[in-house]
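re: the backbone from monday

yeah here it is again, tokenized this time
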């Protein structure tokens, strides 16, 4: 992680945020950030303090219209998307290092650049874990369904054995 640099904006899920030269914050932190780099060719990228998240930069065609950045953290899954106009980009989809004690913060360091950023809204809400996004290759476990299925199998076996025993008694008579 560079000690300085990064001109643009940062959206952070991390421990305490202190002023610094890394997108307006300190570069020594625990957590993740979504950075919008405005120098040269603008890009969006996910950065993590420990290097556990590998995210390739996304180079959206920013214009004068509205863009929507969405950060969804479902337990141990993290999904970060960006909508620019009618185009959707997946910035990151994978495991999440986010801890319940982390803070949400926004920082900026644009140097001499006159890059405007207008926030129309920032929303935060709790989502039931059953609505977690599907991640390809990941299996899910539904305990209730397994219990019901097991109960039906046991009931079916009992019914079968009862019927078999009844027929054997009828045959002997």
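seq for it, each position gets an aa:
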């Amino acid at each position: 992680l560079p000690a300085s640099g990064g001109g643009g904006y940062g959206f952070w899920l991390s421990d305490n945020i202190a002023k610094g030269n890394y997108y307006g914050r300190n570069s020594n932190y625990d957590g993740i950030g979504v950075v919008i780099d405005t120098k040269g060719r603008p890009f969006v990228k996910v950065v993590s303090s420990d290097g556990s998240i590998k995210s390739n930069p996304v180079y959206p065609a920013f214009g004068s219209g509205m863009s929507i950045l969405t950060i969804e953290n479902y337990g141990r899954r993290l999904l970060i998307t960006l909508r620019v106009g009618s185009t959707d980009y997946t910035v990151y989809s994978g495991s999440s290092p986010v801890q319940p004690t982390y803070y949400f913060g926004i920082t900026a360091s644009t140097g001499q650049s006159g890059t405007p950023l207008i926030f129309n809204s920032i929303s935060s809400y709790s989502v039931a874990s059953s609505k977690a996004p599907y991640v390809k290759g990941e299996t899910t476990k539904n305990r209730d369904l397994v219990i019901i299925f097991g109960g039906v199998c046991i009931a079916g076996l009992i019914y079968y054995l009862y019927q078999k025993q009844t027929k054997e008694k009828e045959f002997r008579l």
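The first helix runs from residue 143 to 172. The chain has two domains: 8-131, 141-173.
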